[in-house]
Design a protein that fits this description.
The protein is an alpha+beta fold and 119 residues long. It has helices spanning 2-11, 106-118; strands at 18-23, 26-35, 45-53, 62-66, 80-81, 90-95. The protein has one domain. It is built from two helices and six strands. Strands 1-2-3-4-6-5 form a six-stranded antiparallel sheet, with helices on one face. β1 (18-23) and β2 form a beta hairpin.
Amino acid sequence: MIEKVLRDLHDAGYEEARVFGQRPNIVDVLVPGFVLPPESCMQATADIVLPLPTTFPSSAPYGFFAMTSITKRQGTWRNVSKAEPYAAADFFSRKCPVWDQTKHDVVTYLGFVNGWLTS
């Protein structure tokens, strides 16, 4: 699973993406320099960690960690907290609204992250 995830991220232009950590049933993938939506974020990029279930893409992913600060242009983010194992990061607690394991992959997941940051 992880080899395909990393290959897909590299093909999408995130050549520095790599496994950042492993926990029971989760593989944390670091995506350095994730491009943020300029209409809603003050920063151009951020380093994020995608906590992927070991059964990904059969199981939908959930949320992401912002390893570098992401400032909202107006207002504040909702459902953001400090969480283990990266207590210094912000965890954006989000569910994928629809997940189809036959169509969706890590690039789709990045699209969800982008959508969460624009809402």
